[in-house]
Amino acid sequence: MIEVSLYAIGSVFSTILTVLSISAYRKSGLKKLKYAIVAFALFSGFLICEILESLLSLDNEFTDIIIPSSALVILIFLFLTVIKRT
Question: How buried is 10 (Cβ within 10 angstroms: 0-12 exposed, 13-18 middle, 19+ buried)?
Fold first, then answer.
């Protein structure tokens, strides 16, 4: 149950960061923020999938491939946020 609670807190926090990033992008127009928005949104989805997997005991090949792959994609987008020039 602690695991699900931590996933829930993380998903709420990443959703807040997504909304804040969208707001910052609208105000500043900084193109690098697009990568951060995608990364935070993917992370939120990742954590929601983890919650569902824990609560519903989902264990199939689809989740075994998609969930680790999404973590890799999130890292790529965060990396692009750091190195991308405006």
Answer: middle
